[in-house]
Design goal:
Largest sheet: 9 strands, mixed
Radius of gyration: 19 Å
Structural class: alpha/beta
Helix content: 40-55%
Shape: globular
Number of strands: 9
């Protein structure tokens, strides 16, 4: 049975849902754009049999508050919203973090920075790279522009055309208001074969207001990337048919994550909707491994090693913001 309530975030009210046994280890699921927490319903219901599952509408989505100013969608504020959610619903408890698309992009801020690092037991990331990591990835390819590396850049730029369109005033919000909001279910069905029996009732507003996430964060982090190391085990799930986030963006991730596990999934970008069973099983197996203290015992074949970066990482005093 699900319990829903509003909690106070960083200057906003956030709408939350909890499922499962409150005494069980906790998993927090963070949604992306242009979705709200409803995108996790199928996965959350499956996980709730073993775990205490928390979902919430990020600011600008669903039944949470929708600040009008772009600067109110900065990564630092999104991270403080997550802090508020776990402080209210999981006080003083460790938890496993799972995130998709923009939910993953913003969750990297907490995974790689204080103050939640000591409470995040693991992180499962799906279709959402750390923007700072992408900034370093781009710099590395521009610094040594081999044909293969230039091809990677061009392919990702082609996949990310909409990011640049979102920077234009009025264009994207107007499209959501006049066309995209109404046609979004048809787009998901045509592009990924998803026939959602319960379409998002806030789709137009979620698409329109969530554009501020891109405007507030993309260029600052890509142009001036910070050094961002993760401390917890990270499970990277890569949908092979993702037409927005190319697998090449994760080639250097092992340099930033000491304990990295990778799964490839035969799915498109919206795997939480199209493959809830497979995704829930992957999350469950990973969290189980971390909970028993030895994920390599069950996931050794998924471990991605980088001895050089691990040595450098252990010899460095990390400074995270």
């Amino acid at each position: 049975m699900a319990t829903q309530q509003h909690i106070q975030g960083c200057g906003v009210q956030l709408f939350t849902t909890t499922r499962g046994n409150p005494e069980a280890p906790a998993i927090v699921l963070v949604h992306g754009y242009p979705d709200n927490q409803q995108v996790w319903n199928g996965v959350a219901e499956r996980l709730a049999s073993n775990w205490y599952v928390v979902t919430y509408d990020v600011r600008g989505a669903g039944l949470s508050d929708r600040p009008a100013r772009t600067r109110d969608y900065r990564m630092s504020l999104l991270a403080r919203d997550l802090e508020a959610v776990v402080d209210a619903l999981l006080p003083d408890r460790r938890f496993h973090l799972v995130a998709h698309d923009w939910g993953s992009i913003q969750s990297w801020e907490s995974v790689t920075g204080r103050p939640l690092q000591h409470r995040i037991a693991s992180f499962t990331t799906l279709s959402g790279p750390c923007l700072d990591h992408v900034g370093h990835w781009m710099r590395a390819r521009l610094a040594r522009p081999t044909p293969g590396r230039v091809g990677q850049l061009l392919r990702q730029l082609g996949s990310s055309w909409y990011i640049f369109a979102f920077q234009l005033p009025w264009v994207a919000p107007t499209l959501w208001e006049t066309t995209l909001g109404e046609r979004w279910p048809a787009y998901l069905k045509a592009s990924e074969g998803i026939a959602d029996d319960a379409p998002n009732p806030h789709q137009t507003a979620d698409g329109r207001d969530g554009i501020r996430l891109y405007r507030a964060n993309m260029l600052p982090h890509l142009l001036s990337p910070r050094v961002r190391y993760a401390r917890c085990p990270v499970q990277l799930i890569v949908p092979r048919q993702d037409r927005y986030v190319g697998a090449q963006l994760f080639e250097d991730l092992r340099e930033w994550v000491p304990a990295l596990y990778r799964r490839d999934m035969d799915a498109g970008h919206w795997a939480p909707l199209s493959h809830p069973d497979e995704l829930a099983e992957s999350i469950d197996e990973f969290v189980q491994g971390v909970e028993v203290g030895d994920p390599d015992s069950a996931l050794a074949s998924l471990r991605i090693h980088n001895v050089a970066s691990q040595t450098r990482h252990s010899a460095t005093v990390l400074k995270t913001v």
